[in-house]
Each structure stands twice: as structure tokens, then as C-alpha cells.
Amino acid sequence: MARSLALALTAAASLTLAAAAAPLAAAAPLAAAAPLAAADPGPGRAQGDRALTYAATARYQVHANAVADGYKPDQYCVVDKAGPGALGYPHFNHKYDNSLDPRKPAALFYEDDGRGGKRLVAVQWLLYDRDQKLTTDDDRPSMFGIPFKGPKAGNFPGQPVHYALHMWLWKKNPDGLFETFNRAVTCLPGTTRPKPSL
Asked: C-alpha distances in angstroms, 75 versus 131, 175, 177?
């Protein structure tokens, strides 16, 4: 009951923020993705775009809604190999690769909720690098006034060299809203990808 009420309140607040941001979004149509990447949005535009992301992803707090909308779950939880923290379980919708629309992140990230289910913690946008070289970054995109990280090599076979931007929208990250990993997220024993045998 409390969770249902919390979800309803979050969705209502998100919709209110999105409505307030509508004039900002109307002033700069999202269909023109390239100008969004190049322009400095200013704090008003960044806040408006963040409200759009809240409103668009609130329904994905119910894991089944994300899967129904084409976000394919990875069975493994991703840990930070360089230190404490994790990403959680990635859910990619490759239809939104190269999207700079705040309402259409390419990935959602979930953590175990302690009751056998999944809790939404973060979203991610992913753009392919134009020349596919790790040594150049003249096409680095940005959203919310924040430059994407990269270029970085693909994380799995077939994934191109790309830029990525994470946003810890649904769980506080002690290191910052746009950091890649979150030390407040943990992977349960036995949930990470097995190391390849030699």
C-alpha cells in the first residue's frame, strides 16, 4: 500500500514538473537532436529536460512496464571492477541508441529490491562515436549541460565505440547524479557475470 502510494505521488510530481517544463520543451523541439547536443541548454532547459525524464520513466518503476516497452533485461548485475559500487542490471532498448531525447533513454538500470523484484535506480543515453576511434572526441554530445563520457569501447561483442551518460534519477548517488557507477548499489552474490574460464 505504501509503495503504491509512493509510486502514485512520484508519478503525479513528475507530471507536474513535466507540465511546468512544457514551454521550455516547446521552445526547442526534441526532433532536432544535433542542436541539443551542441547547444548549452542553460539551467532552465536542463531542469525542464530532467523533468521530462522523470515523467517518462516513472512508469518503469514497475519492472514489467519496462520489459513490455522493449527494454530487454540482462540477467547479470554489473559491478565496478575498479572499486566499490555497481550499475545494477542493465535493460537496453536499442531502438533508442543515439537518442538525445530526455524521454527516451537507451538503457534503464535496476537493483534487487530485497523481495525478489527489481527497483529502478538509473537511466542512460548512448550515442555511437562518428569515426569509431577511441583517440578522437570532436563529436562528444551533451545533455542537461553535462558532456557524455567516452568515447569508450563496446561492452559486448558488436557494440560500437560510443559515448554514454548515466543519470541516477531514482537512487541517490553519493558521488554525483551523472557518475557512471554508484557505490550505494550492490550486486547480490551469484548475480554477476561469471569470469570466462581459461
From this structure: 31, 26, 25
pLDDT band at 5 (very low <50, low <70, confident <90, very high): very low
* Cβ atoms of 102 and 143 closer than 8 Å: yes
CB contact at 8 A, 192 and 182:
no
CA 33 – CA 198 distance, rounded (Å): 44
Q: Nearest to residue 119, comparing CAs of 57, 37, 193?
A: 57
pLDDT tens digits, one per residue of 168-179: 999 999 999 999
CB neighbour list of residue 102: distance below 8 Å, 6 or more residues apart:
30, 49, 50, 52, 53, 56, 143, 144
Cell 514538473, residue? 17
